[in-house]
Amino acid sequence: MQKKLQKTPEEYAERAKSFFAEGYNCSQAVLLTFAEELGMPLHMAAKLASSFGGGMGRLREVCGAVSGMFMAAGLLEGYDDPKDHAEKTAHYKRIQELAEAFRRQNGSIVCRELLGLAQTGASHHEPEKRTEAYYKKRPCQELVGDAAKLFAAYFSAQSYNK
């Protein structure tokens, strides 16, 4: 059975940016974009991805948009048999390819590097207020769009049979 996404990569990018503009974190915005189409209710996807915003709870590690992309990849093409070495290997290959595509486009997959920050945000657990100034100084809305578009383009170009 071939799995296929239903919209264009550009449509997914706009949807992800819209979720981010509503106030969802970067990880939620990407996962929510694909959740229902991949069989996960929006409320469950929002909760699952809630810990990964701000580079994993504002630690400024792996970009939340990238983490959201990886979670969507798991829903679409993840493995569930811990003994299936071939499926695990194939999935990790897909994840590394997605990471490399995001890195090529944006220079990094690390939140603090994407934001030009010197240190982690471990002592800064309170999220910033979403104001007009916030959206002007942060590339996050564009990054969630990039992640959604890359994910959709990658899986639209692939032929996976299960």
* Rg from Cα: 15 Å
Oligomer: single chain
Mean pLDDT: 90
Total beta strands: 0
Order of helices and strands: HHHHHHHHH
From the spread of the alpha carbons, the general shape counts as: globular
How much helix is in the residues?
Answer: 55-70%
**Straight-line distance between termini:** 6 Å
Taking pLDDT < 50 over at least 5 consecutive residues as the criterion, the unreliable ranges are none
**What count of domains describes the coordinates?**
1
For the largest beta-sheet, the strand count, sense and barrel status come to: none
The secondary structure category is mainly alpha
Task: Kindly estimate the percentage of residues that lie in beta strands according to DSSP.
Answer: under 5%
| Tally of individual helices | 9
Topology:
Layout lengths: L8 H14 L3 H10 L6 H8 L3 H4 L7 H14 L7 H22 L4 H5 L16 H6 L2 H18 L5
Helix pairs in contact: 1-2, 1-9, 2-3, 2-5, 2-9, 5-6, 5-9, 6-9
Structure characteristics:
mainly alpha; about 160 residues; globular; 9 helices
Account of the 3D structure:
The chain is mostly helical. The protein has one domain (9-157). The protein has 9 helices and no strands. The protein has helices at 9-22, 26-35, 42-49, 53-56, 64-77, 85-106, 111-115, 132-137, 140-157. Helix 6 crosses helix 9. The mean pLDDT is 90.
